[in-house]
Structure formats: structure tokens, C-alpha cells
Amino acid sequence: MESILVGLIILLSVIVLVQLLRVNELISEVKNEDPNEITEKDNNTQGILTFLIVGVLFLAFVLWQFKYWGIHILPPASSLHGATIDTLMNVTLGLIIFVFFLTQPVLAWFSFKYRGLKNSAAYYYPHNNKLEVIWTVVPTLVLTPLIIYGLNVWNDITNADTTNSKVIELYAKQFNWTARYAGEDNSLGKANYKLVKGLNELGVDMEDENAGDDIITREVHLVIDQPVLLKMRSQDVIHSAFLPHFRVQMNCVPGMTTQFGFTPTQTTAEMKEQEGEDFEFVLLCNKICGAAHYNMKMKFIVESQEEYDTWMASQKTLKNTLTLN
Amino acid sequence: MSEHHKETFLTKYIFSLDHKMIAKQFLITGMFMGVVGMTMSILFRLQLSNPGESFAVLEFFLGEKWAPGGVLDPNMYLSLVTMHGTILVFWVLTAGLTGTFANFLIPLQIGARDMASGFMNMLSYWFFFAATLVLMYSLFVESGPAAAGWTIYPPLSALPQAIPGSGLGQDLWLIAITLFVVSSLLGGLNYIVTILNLRTKGMSMSRLPLTIWALLIVAILGVLSFPVLLSCALLLIFDRSFGTSFYLSDIIINGEALHNTGGSPILFEHLFWFLGHPEVYIILLPALGIVSEVISVNSRKPIFGYKAMVGALIVIAFLSFVVWGHHMFITGMDPFLGSVFTFTTLLIAIPSAVKVFNYLATLWRANIRFTPAMLFAIAFVSTFITGGLTGLILGDSALDINIHDTYFVVGHFHIVMGVSAIYGMLAGVYHWFPKMYGRMMNKKLGYFHFWVTFISAYGVFFPMHFLGLAGLPRRYYTNSAFPMFDGLTDINEVITFFAIIGGLVQLLFIFNFFYSIFKGTKASENPWKSNTLEWTTPVERIHGNWPGEIPSVERWPYDYSKPGADEDFIPQNVPLKEGETEH
User: Fold this and answer.
1) Mean per-residue pLDDT for B343-348?
2) A220-223 and A258-262 as β-strands: parallel, antiparallel, unpaired?
3) Closest approach of chain B CAs to the CA of A226, in angstroms?
4) Which of B353, B356, B484 shows the shortest C-beta gap to A282?
5) Best mutation site among A43, A44, A103 for testing chain B: the one with the most B CBs within 10 Å?
């Protein structure tokens, strides 16, 4: 019944539209003009509309969004390298906002100013090599330092010295995360997917001498200002370890290990003070991985050395977990 | 002339060899797919702004199985996102856009009776049609359509145990895309050969309209990159069905350890994006060509810097082959490669900037006639600027770390290639409709369509940048699992509101299109007072395009408002006057 009603309404609106168009055409016929010819009046109206909508309304909407939605933008980075990314971001954003507010008004203004009116004529101006050289060279000159700056930041992040970093493995599977601390020796035991069985859910090779002191956890605790090296593996499909507050992201790819090193610079407690009591550092999955992709998360906690030591002391090593049970 | 022959209904409308009819077939199929893809986006937008709420429309379209009680199923959400992307990228903006305008414009604008091979051209459409049927059929299979994202990264796309959509739905997706690649190659080879060999007397390469330059470069890009997608898809079919391990390694799924070792999903990503990035320009370049033509005609001015425009197209096309890695900065690819791809990617800003400045210079001291096509062309310049600028952020590997796969990316690519290319396509339809159907589209509906589209497109996609900067990942069924995203509801509601408005107004365009085919006011031979050769053909469609001799070309296509001329346009077949120099 409902769908018949909807169908009828659609049919009626089409008929109404057709009749409206007919009336429009008949009126034009009586006036002896072509209803679809673009007239000077059209040029005037549309030129003004272009100026108002492209040049004013749209740009005002953009500013409005910065004012009211700008607060949703992530807070400043809580990691050492994150701060350099933020600076690069601000420089780039500044540049593109400048170019945006330079070119869009020009587009709207030219469209309005040069709308075709009675007696107006276009100026035959096929090319001007000097101008073209200028607007090839200027973007090049602006881009060159930006590219070099960006590459420097990237190299600093990816080539950072990780010899003193605490090694933690992030293990992804549909649809949760597991962490493995490398333990006292700061060296992860080897793993093989064929060894995944029962409590050994990460497939750690217990015959490897580095494996025994590894510690498996469901949340990750980090010490402020201490560098960590995250090593990522996946059990099934591609996942992506995304820690937006630390400006960290790396895919977890089955069959290989990926890594990302960083140093947290703010504790969870400090962030709670700044962002509100609900604040937590979270690890999200940011590569489509299945039905519950949106639900795949793990808590990260940054704290002082003492708090960390207390927490760590309560964790069981892999050797204990696998042998005592 | 063999092209002038008797046509039956079947050879005229169905198995037509006439490039103009094949163009219309591509256009109407593309429009149909556009409506399907757009409807999907509105369905999943409802879930994103009102997660978990019941909508009768969801149950109406998806049924009790995929929207129980009117609430969207998470697997179906991923299927809708996947199919929306696939349909829009390949079916609408590749086949619908290039298929329409390459077929329609190439012979008409270069002065040829038809394509080099009319039969191959027909095959190209029918392979596309077969691909369409297979893809549409996949919407109705028990386990649902493909759901691994339009980029179908394995292992998710390879393992039916990982997501139901990777069952039969993914098989059909791969078959459809294989047929699609065949169609695209048949078309592309034909376009290249036609442009290089069948130009009329006097139509030198430096007198080609920019539309044809763009379509030529697009065809070359397609011929070089689509075979790579084909091999990429074939290897995936092997992994899925024949137990090979090209992309699979060390996998446990549903508690079962698979035998596959030694494969790499990264290999898939390289192969996919080797097509995938040029594909972005396969979508964008025809729009750039159309917009150049429409802006010049309606500014009543030559396009500014013709040679620079051609040069920029060539540079962009070349660079598009060496930037694919910018989709893979954080996949675990060697960071050094990341640096190289950052460098090449940011270089694209230079030719893009040249194009924008040349468009602005064309509008400067113009005498603008605001046809609906012209409005869409101006809007294209606006979205090309907006979307191009955010590319400077995404192309920078260091910045990509934190916004990769967030809504920032969704906002960026929808504006720079989605909306821009749709604007180019709509500009093309409004502009060439009189030549396609011999009638005019209703101008008032056109204006209304344009302004609502312009406002809602920015209303949908600009706010997404803020979602992305807030860290919200794309392809999330809902963001309610993370309290940090709780404040984003109002942004999502605004986006959905504009998506619905923008979607509805496209129906008005489709109404205008079909109404005008049958009832529009009669068009004259050259309603826009344009210079290019297609406007010298008669209003009545004939196979062979010109009843008599093919006109010869005497000048470039952009002699608008040339001093000393009687009118503000001089068609390409008008000889130079004595003492007149060519631009």
C-alpha cells in the first residue's frame, strides 16, 4: 500500500513538472522568444549568483566550519615526532588556505565582472609567455622548500634511531588487538603462525630463548618520554594500527612485520586534565578488515616510570602463562 | 561512402556501429549506474548520521535480510561502500564519462565519418554492458556483493571466511572488472588510432581541440595501465580459486591455518595502484578537456595558453605513472620509496596550478554567457582548486601518516576527482546535448540543478575534512565505539542532509534529460556559436556525420572574438583571410 502511494506521488510530480515546462514554453511562444536561449538577463542573474554563492556564501561556509568545527580537530600531538608533523601541517595548511582564499574569490569575481552584458565584448588574448612562465616558476619556487621540508620530517621519523627503544609487538586479528612486551631482554621471541594454539594465541616459538620473558597484555602502558618501537603483525587480513594522538599509523600485514617508533610526551593524566575526564589514548584499526572493523580498539596509557613498574610487576610472563596452566 | 547505409531499429539503436549512438548508450548506462551508486551512498549516509536507527527506505531497498527492522547490517554497509566506489569510479566516471565523450566527440571534432573500427567500438560497449549485468547481478547473490572496499585489498577480498562479501559477490566483481578492462582496451585502442589517423585535412595536432588532446592522453593512459589491473585481478582470481599464494601468507582465519606462505598483499597494492593512480587521471583528464572547451566557447575567448594546456596535460599524465606509491606510505613499503613518491606527487601541483591560472586568465576580460554547462565548468575550476590543494597534504608522506584512510581522504578525492569529474560530465552533457539529440535542454531546470548541486556537493564533502582532522577513519559502520568521536554527530548530520538534497536534485536533471530528448525545443545547427567541427554537422543524426564532403580545417579551434572578424567566432573550416595570422 505504502509503495503504491509513493509510486503515485512520484508519478504525479513528474506530470506536474511536465505541465510546468509546457506552460513555460507556451508563454515563451506567445512572447515570441526561444525559452532556452541564454539572454542578457540570464547572464546578469547567473553572474551575480556566481559571485554571491561561489564568492561569498561558499567562503563564508568555509570560515563558519573553521569557527564551529575547528574544535574537533585533534589536540596537539602527544609524541616527539608528532610535534614536527604538526608544525609541517600548520605550514602546509597556512599555505593552502592562503592560495584558496586568493583563487576562489578571483574565480567568482571574474565570473561576475565579465558576465556577458549588452555591448560588452571579449578581449582576444590567446597567450602570454611571460605570464605563463611566472605561474609555472612561482609554484615551483614555493613547492621546492615545502617538498624538502616534508622529506626531512619523513626521514627523521622513519630513520630514527631505535636501538634504545622498548620493543612492543601489536598483533591484529579480526576483531581485536593484542600486545606483546619483549620483556627483560627487550627482544621478542620468534613467532610462527602455525604455532598459534590455545593459550599461545600469538604463535610464539617457546624454544626461542628470547620468548620466555615476553609478556602478553590487553592494553599498552608506556612510560612518558621513553622511546618505544611498535612491531606489527596480523593474523588474517590487513589491519592498520592507528594512534591518532601520537601521529602514528602503520599497516599490519599478514606474512610480514612492520614497525613504527615514537616517544610519548604527555601522560594520560595530563591529557585528561586538558581534554576532559573521558580522555583515553586509543589504538584504532584503520584498514577495512570486516564486519566489526569499526569496533576494533585497544587502550594505550602513558604514565610515570613508577606507575609503569607497578603495572608491569603484576603481569605474567609468557613462560609462566604457558607452563603453569 | 560505406557509412551511409539503411538502418533497421536493431542496427540503429541496439547493435549500432555509429559512434554517436554508442556514445549515447554509454551515457545512458552511465547515468543509470550513477543513480544506483548515488542511491547506495544515501543509504549508508543514513546509517552514518543516525547509527542504529530504523529507516523504512533501508528495508525497502535492502530487504529483511540486509536491513532487519530497517537497520543497516554492518556487512551490507561495507558492501554498499564497496559497490558505491566501484560503480562511481569505473562505471560512471570511466566508462560513463570517457565512453560517452570520446565516442561522441572524437570523430566529430577531428572530422571523421566514424571511429577507425566501428565494430570494435560496438564490442567495447557490449563488453561494458556485460560487465554491468554481472556487477548488477552480484547485488542479488545470497552472500551479498563484494565488501572489501573498491580497492579490494587481499587477504580480505580473497577469503570468503573473512567477510561474506568475499564469496560469490567478489567472484562476480572480478569477472565484471575483467569484462570492463576488455571494454576499456577496445575503446582506448580505437580512440588512439582514430585520433592519430583519421583527422581531416588541415587538422594538425596543434589545431586539435583540447577535448581531443585530453581524450587521446586518457586513452594512452588506459591502454598502458588497465592491463596491469587485469593481471592484478587475475592473480587474485588464482589465489581465490586455485590455491596459489601470490598475495597470501601466514594466515589463520576462523581458527584454521591456511597453507599459503610467501605471498604478499603489498604486491597486490603495487599492482592495483599502478593502475589505480593513472585511473584517477583517466577520470579527471576528460573533464579537464571538456571544461577547457566549454569555458572557451562561453567566455567567447580563446583558451588562454593552448600550448601550456596541452603541455600540462602531458606532464600530469606522465607523472601519474610514477606516483602510485603515495597510496602506500604506511603499508610498510620502504620509507625511501616513500620519499621518492612524495617528491613526484607534489610535482603534480605545478602543471595543475598552470591549468588553474590559465582558466582564470581565460575568464579575465571575457564576455561570459552563463549556460548551465558554463556554470558547471566554473564550478569545476572551484572544486579542482579546493581538492587539488588538500592533495598537497595527502601527498606529503609525513602528513599522510595521521590522515591516511581518514575522512580527510574521502573529502579530498570526492572533491578533486568525484565532484570535479561529475561537473565535467554534466557540463559536457548540457553543452553537447543539442548535438546529441537535436533539441535543447531546459535552461531553467538546468540552472536550478546546478545551484542545488553546487551547494550540496560542498555541503557534503567540505565538512569531511574536519572529520578527518579529528581522526575519524573511513569505512566505519558507526563511530560510537570511540567516545573521542562523540562530538562529530552534527557534522555527520549536515553531510547526510546535503547528500539527500544533492541526490534528489540529480533526479530532476535526469527528468530534464529525458523530457528534452522528446519534448525539448528544437536546436539549431550551432546553438552556442562554437568553432569546432561537430557544429558544422546537420541537426538530423546521420551515420557518417556530414552529408557531403568532410570539411577541411583552416585554423585552430579557439578563434573567439578575434579582432577584425565580423562575428565573435570563426569556425575551424573558415579559411584564413588574406593577411590574417593564425593566433
Assistant:
1) 94
2) unpaired
3) 21
4) B484
5) A103
Q: What is the pLDDT of residue B85?
A: 97
Domain interval for residue B347: 9-536
A152 and A108 in a common domain: no
| Same domain assignment for residues A46 and A62 | yes
B427 is a domain residue: yes
Q: What is the pLDDT of residues A112-157, one digit of tens each?
A: 999 999 888 999 999 999 999 999 999 999 999 999 999 999 999 9
Whether residue A269 sits in one domain with residue A191: yes
The owner of cell 622513519 is A158
Bridge-based pairing of strands A228-234 and A258-262 is antiparallel
- How high is the pLDDT of residue B1? 41
ipTM: 0.94
Instruction: Name the pLDDT band for B514 (thresholds 50, 70, 90).
Output: very high
pLDDT tens track for B49-84? 999 999 999 999 999 999 999 999 999 999 999 999
CA distance A110 to chain B (A): 6
Answer whether B119 touches A (CB < 8 Å). no
Helix (H) or strand (E) holding B107: helix B100-110
Cβ distance of B442 and A244 shorter than 8 Å: no
Query: Taken in order B21, B25, B31, B32, is the CA torsion positive or negative?
Result: positive
Tally of domains in chain B: 1
- Smallest CA-to-CA distance from A94 within B491, B392, B402 is with B392
Q: Which of A56, A83, A117 is the last residue of a domain?
A: A117
- Candidates B266, B354, B399; nearest CB to A132: B354
* Predicted pLDDT at B4: 55
Residue span of the structural domain in which A108 resides? 42-68+75-117
Question: A268 and A316: one domain?
Answer: yes
- Shortest CB distance from A254 goes to which of B155, B441, B477? B155
Identify the residue among B341, B370, B467, B504 best suited for mutation to test binding to A, counting A beta carbons within 10 A and taking the highest: B370
Within a domain: A238:
yes
Task: Tell me whether residue B547 is exposed, middle or buried, using C-beta atoms within 10 angstroms of its C-beta: 0 to 12, 13 to 18, 19 or more.
Answer: exposed
Same structural domain, A64 and A204:
no
Q: Determine the Cα–Cα distance for residues A160 and A150; give it in Å rounded to an integer.
A: 15
Q: Which residue stretches of A79-166 are H helix?
A: 80-113, 129-158
